[in-house]
Amino acid sequence: MFDTSDDVGARLSAVDYLAGSATATTVFLAGRLGKPLLIEGPAGVGKTGLAQAVAAATGAELIRLQCYEGLDESRALYEWNYATQLLRIQAGQDADWQHTRADIFTPEFLLERPLLAAIRREGPTVLLIDEVDKADLEFEALLLEVLSDFQITVPELGTVRARHRPFVVLTSNAARELSEALKRRCLYLHMDYPTPERERDIVLTHVPALGEQLAGKLTEVAAALRNLELTKAPSIAETIDWARSLLALGIDDLNDPALEATLGVVLKHPGDHERALAALELRGR
């Protein structure tokens, strides 16, 4: 899917995702080796965006599985469409049970969920398993067959194997330690917040009208805010929203009044707001 790591960087840049050398190299290796890519790091550093960018850069369809506590097989793999099965049974009341049973457990009545959809898809596919650390350990065990052999077993139908391996990206905010079994099946990439200079380049990619000087000051403030003990640090996406907000307001200088008026774009907790005002010495001005 990519020829070299430089090819990864260039093609991701073409879809407005600026990847560092470590990111580009790991994405290249994941594609070349056919291994799932596990990305860990704080929320808002571009983990999900990387999967979306890979899909856009390669013309693949993105299939996303959002993980949460209690996620189970029926939501991740497949489930049977019981309502239509019941209708079929009622329509064929005169048929014997063996015939009816063979009729209702067929692909026609199978509701595929993201993992099965990714395995069965014929075309290029990026499978995003987002925030896998929010799912239970039992769900990790469920993933092992998929990530090892790219196959899913449906007892009534047999084993479904992928004709074309999807490019798999798992993201984790490191809310809990993932199992070693899961990590062994993946290449690993740790992502952190970018330097102010790199974030300035990212902001200018998405909001070029902001100007280099204002973008530089904006990303320096964002970096300073992330050094505070906040409940939620500003994400890269929120920094971009901040840049767009400054443009919408016609602000061309991030002075103290402009800062105080627009902090709500990136800080969403009252305590964080108070800490930022104190740290930036804005209160009372």
TrEMBL record:
Name the Gene Ontology molecular function terms of this record: ATP binding; ATP hydrolysis activity
InterPro entries named in the record? AAA+_ATPase, ATPase_dyneun-rel_AAA, CbbQ/NirQ/NorQ/GpvN, P-loop_NTPase
List the SMART domains hit by this protein, alphabetically: AAA (SM00382)
Record-annotated AAA+ ATPase domain positions: 33-197
Name by which UniProt lists this protein: MoxR-like ATPase
Look up and give the organism this protein is from: Saccharopolyspora antimicrobica
